[in-house]
Design brief:
By secondary structure, this protein is of the alpha/beta class. It contains 15 helices and 21 strands. The strands form 4 sheets. The protein has an 8-stranded mixed sheet. Strands 3-2-1-4-6-5 form a 6-stranded mixed sheet, with helices on both faces.
């Protein structure tokens, strides 16, 4: 069965399944569009380019009712709902053919995405946690995939977490906003690691009570009642606010942990979905609770996985199969045919030893191969790579990305070396958990609290990045590189070579590698210094 699913709004995406295989997940924000973009006409043509024939089923993900589309509302499910009664089935015409039509709730899309992408066999009972900007609930999934909500533990955990960042940020207009900024949750995750105390002051307890109050929606304008509190508009560099960020992070986690500890059977698997599933500190804490036999978080835990989840839900409805096989590199191919000014670059046939040598000499390189990653984390196909040995590299990477200096840089590491440098004795291919760094030799990828958001790499998970890490290890003794996303600030991954060239010039990359070809900027002082070194491989090779 061929299933085409779409989530038209926030974090818009198409997903295409063919007999249980994820052929493509096309996300609206990719191609350097604004983060969290809705679907647009170019996305329609992109997904049509991936179809070999008319699909059997067309799916639409659930969302909030919209006053601008009143006639359509009877044809798509809502945001909430987890039972089979929240499914809408019918027929539609698509490309001259009558196809099955399916729509289920946004809530179900998270649950089915997590179960369908996990390694759990069909029929495995488990628990699920959906925590995001709106929903904060635990569920039980039985052997027939019946969903039972155990509790709404806390409304809007992601929104309230991010709202703390906005509380301290004087640039956030609290009175004008209806919701916290989407980017603030990730920033607060970084700030929380600076915390050096665990006990809140009396005033901070009042802020916690305000943030965690029992109401369906906490408007940012309600922060007005905290105007005279110390943390209001104090700024994000304030050390006491950073201490408080860690306290609030722990308190929100503890609300959910205490429910799980008191109400859920030990030893069952836990699936995690929703945008809070991208919080690596919380994911790691769930593993460390020892309440669950295993914890699984999909790399598309946020709404970028909603279209996949609805497609899985439809597949389960029509075939009885809730499982798919998938690869994290299931986006679109890179567009390398656009024109750009080649005269700016020295070009080389890619030599892994040469790129490793350049990286070891502190060049910073864009790295592109194959299809882009699904979800928000760059995992070696749309990445910026650098040497991990100097703190100044982290500073420069944040300058290149035009973002705050408190943001950490993640490491990509050979899986066989992960236990040596990060104490990680298992695969962690999606940058969803933190590990304690076991050496002081890697300051560029070591966050202020001594942790790193690690990606383990094998020849099976990413062949090209694996070869480069092997070459870098041969050159330096460490199979570890800085790995951060290749994107303009506030936009999704770069996916064509003209944008990549613009980025390299404007953001001071030293060059980039695309599908077996290296382009190194002649204007890069790091590159020119490298060429003058007596043992430089590029100097011997010639452009």
């Amino acid at each position: 069965m061929k299933i085409l699913s779409f989530n038209p709004g926030h974090d818009g995406a198409f997903a295409y399944l063919d007999d249980g295989h994820l052929v493509a997940s096309i996300e609206a924000e990719k191609h350097s569009r604004y983060r969290h973009s809705p679907l647009s006409v170019p996305d329609v043509f992109s997904v049509l380019g991936e179809l070999k024939e008319v699909p059997d089923v067309l799916c639409r993900g659930g969302w909030w009712p919209s006053g601008t589309h009143l006639p359509e509302q009877q044809f798509f499910a809502g945001y909430h709902g987890f039972s089979n009664s929240d499914i809408i089935v019918g027929q539609k015409r698509l490309l001259g053919k009558t196809v099955e039509y399916f729509s289920s709730s946004h809530e179900r899309s998270h649950l089915l995405c997590a179960f369908g992408m996990s390694n759990l066999p069909k029929g495995t009972p488990c628990y699920a946690l959906v925590w995001e900007g709106v929903i904060g609930s635990f569920y039980k999934i039985d052997s027939k995939l019946n969903l039972t909500k155990l509790a709404d533990v806390m409304p809007e955990p992601g929104h309230r977490y991010a709202l703390l960042y906005g509380l301290a940020d004087p640039t956030f207009d609290k009175n004008a906003a209806e919701f916290s900024r989407f980017s603030d949750a990730g920033k607060l995750m970084a700030l929380a690691s600076f915390s050096k105390r665990s006990k809140p002051s009396d005033e901070e307890e009042k802020i916690i009570a305000f943030l965690m109050q029992d109401c369906l929606h906490l408007k940012p304008s309600a922060c007005e009642e905290l105007r005279h509190f110390r943390h209001y508009n104090v700024g994000l560099d304030d050390p006491e606010f950073r201490n408080f960020a860690g306290i609030v992070s722990d308190r929100i986690f503890d609300r959910f942990y205490q429910f799980a500890k008191s109400n859920m059977k030990r030893g069952m698997p836990l699936l995690i979905a929703g945008g809070c599933g991208l919080n690596c500190d919380w994911n790691t804490k769930w593993r460390e609770t020892n309440l669950f036999s295993e914890v699984f978080v999909p790399p598309v835990a946020n709404d970028s996985g909603s279209a996949i989840g609805t497609a899985i839900d439809a597949q389960f409805h029509f075939t009885g199969n809730p499982k798919i096989d998938w690869n994290v590199y299931s986006g679109l191919e890179f567009i390398a045919t656009d024109s750009f000014d080649l005269s700016l670059y020295d070009q080389y046939d890619t030599n892994y030893a040469m790129i490793a040598d350049m990286l070891a000499k502190n060049l910073i390189i864009g790295w592109v191969n194959g299809k882009y990653e699904i979800g928000p984390r760059a995992l070696g196909n749309r990445s910026i790579l650098a040497s991990p040995f100097q703190e100044s590299t982290r500073v420069r990477l944040n300058e290149i990305k035009k973002r705050e200096q408190f943001r950490p840089i993640a490491p990509a590491c050979l899986e066989e070396d992960a236990v040596k440098w990060f104490g990680c004795d298992h695969a962690s291919p999606f940058m969803l958990y933190t590990q304690l760094v076991g050496t002081d030799a890697l300051p560029a990828v070591t966050h202020v609290n001594g942790t790193a958001r690690i990606q383990t790499v094998t020849s099976e998970t990413n062949r090209h990045l694996h070869k480069l890490l092997i070459a870098f290890k041969a050159r330096t003794g460490y199979g570890v590189l800085c790995n951060t996303s290749l994107n303009f600030n506030g936009r999704g991954f770069i996916n064509n070579i003209a944008d990549l060239s613009t980025y390299a010039v404007e953001h001071n990359l030293d060059g980039f590698v695309v599908e077996g070809r290296s382009y190194i900027l002649k204007s890069s002082t790091n590159y020119q210094t490298y060429l003058m070194m007596p043992n430089s491989i590029a100097g011997r090779t010639g452009g």
